[in-house]
Amino acid sequence: xxxxxxxxxxxxxxxxxxxxxxxxxxxxxxxxxxxxxxxxxxxxxxxxxxxxxxxxxxxxxxxxxxxxxxxxxxxxxxxxxxxxxxxxxxxxxxxxxxxxxxxxxxxxxxxxxxxxxxxxxxxxxxxxxxxxxxxxxxxxxxxxxxxxxxxxxxxxxxxxxxxxxxxxxxxxxxxxxxxxxxxxxxxxxxxxxxxxxxxxxxxxxxxxxxxxxxxxxxxxxxxxxxxxxxxxxxxxxxxxxxxxxxxxxxxxxxxxxxxxxxxxxxxxxxxxxxxxxxxxxxxxxxxxxxxxxxxxxxxxxxxxxxxxxxxxxxxxxxxxxxxxxxxxxxxxxxxxxxxxxxxxxxxxxxxxxxxxxxxxxxxxxxxxxxxxxxxxxxxxxxxxxxxxxxxxxxxxxxxxxxxxxxxxxxxxxxxxxxxx
Length: 420
Hints:
By secondary structure, the chain is α/β, with parallel strands linked by helices. It contains 14 helices and twelve strands. It folds into two domains: 5-257, Peroxisomal Thiolase, Chain A, domain 1 (3-Layer(aba) Sandwich); 268-418, Thiolase/Chalcone synthase (Peroxisomal Thiolase, Chain A, domain 1, 3-Layer(aba) Sandwich), CATH 3.40.47. α12 links the parallel β9 (306-310) and β10 (339-341). The two termini are 16 Å apart.
């Protein structure tokens, strides 16, 4: 029998809650975490809303000015190399380890690996480069590189936790943490690792969010209650957000032998690229369709076996339509009609952390027996005709779950989870 993988731990620092209980309540109640903001003290900017993290303050380059909940005891030597989203990540991993009933010392065994996803910290990159230029190259922080570039999470977290298994970072834009999860599954299936920690994290600062406004990718709707509305005819762009989510994936027999709590089986995955455009999804959703087909083949499942789809849908006009067409083609058979929703109506879009966040949401749904609804959806796009898009959360088991992700360059990933 091939090795199976299961989800044994979850950790959340998200706009809709910083604990499993808070996140579950928000998903069930359709409670969003989007707030009004004013970037750069400029009221004339068109971007007015962001998915924010509560109970944390880490908006400056100086870690001495940050604050976080008292339950996290973070040593000074760890903070010195962290970015703000590194702080979120460390706290999410601490939660996930406790949730999986693991002591920190247990992950130094060499059988545990760590895969991370983030775009790096543009806040810190700008700060350090500006200081370098201002002093004509004479001053720059000794940890400026490891705190700011795209590998900052794997650098800092692997050292902090003493990870001696596989360690790596994934950079595929909004599909990054889904790639990390898929590769973690492969490592477990191949017997390379017994356990993998996967974390995705991002910041929501002027430096990281506003460049998307130049691409006309962001919503200009100032109302937090309606700005993020995936699949709706009135959607006008995504709402940026931030945080960190960690998942612990273990080889199934290894997890059972130690009596680990189990949320779900991580059954399989697939990936495919559009080969079309650097920034825009293929208009017919061909790459995402191919990724879904490969995930189904990997699990020997048929479209009719899928009970729920957690869609990537970010609330952009082109992206949501492309995904809707891919789902239409996938579930064209009359006996294949899963429930479909995008939880980004609640969270906004946290870029490379989206995949692991939504995979964790799917794990909660499987464990607790509910299907998240489509928050803020009033009038579905015509491309969604025939798709089952519940408006509110349903108290029913989701069955086998498909979670999709898409990123710049046409990178697409499909993940499949089911009851363990």
